[in-house]
Write a structure and sequence with these properties.
9 helices; hydrolase; 36% helix; 272 residues; seven-stranded mixed sheet; EC 3.5.1.-; globular
Length: 272
Amino acid sequence: MPPRTAVFFHAHPDDEALLTAGTMAMLAAEGHRVVLVVATAGERGLAEMEPGEELGRTRLKELYESAALLGCARVECLGYGDSGLSPKGGVAEERPDNAFIDADTEEAAGRLAAILREEDADLLSIYDPAGGYGHPDHVQVHRVGRRAAELAGTEIVLEATVNRDPLLRLLRLAGKVYRFPPEFDVRTFESAYSPGEVITHRVNVRRYARQKRAAMSAHASQATGGDSDRTLAVLLKVPGPLYRLVFGTEWYVRRDLPPGTRLSHPLDRWPR
């Protein structure tokens, strides 16, 4: 397979490590060009910072470290403000004037499309319509990414997601032996991510589990802060063999393929 160029569009630093790091590392190892674009610096994330540190700057440094571990050839931040998240999980009432969620879709898509054209991108990775777990900036990534692909003529658009069917089963089972924090409602996952029936790509990334874990570890600022255990901190405590099992598959939906398609590589089934 000749070298291709894949652009991965994420909302905040550390999103790439959680959802697509294995795929990115695999493509880079195979000789493809991998480009990482984030909409914001994630400056409204929770973190325990040292005096004088600025969270957005710190998170971008962590992003570049993660990208280097994954073999990315280029990293870009579009510079929008982190929209934040309300305590109930919706759009935050107080947010910066340049919040990504308030950005004009055409304008933001035009900026991303310019990168796609410059890179002559073959593939764009975004999120599913639910934005994964529903963060407003993630939903905006879906909208902006879809439009950018149209503007740039990028034919392959993969929606990074998680197969929510086994996830729900796992959470319900875990709930029988573990008391989740009061703010954690398993029922919210009934509409999060994507059902297995629409997933077209199941990418085995177990060979790249160490790089994926290292990319997560690079985002050290997101392992602290808040009143309860941070998701990233919990995931990094998972033992190696179990980590490879749980995080060894990454899922994508390609909407122009028929439901029930089962592909194992993001570059399979290119248009003829």
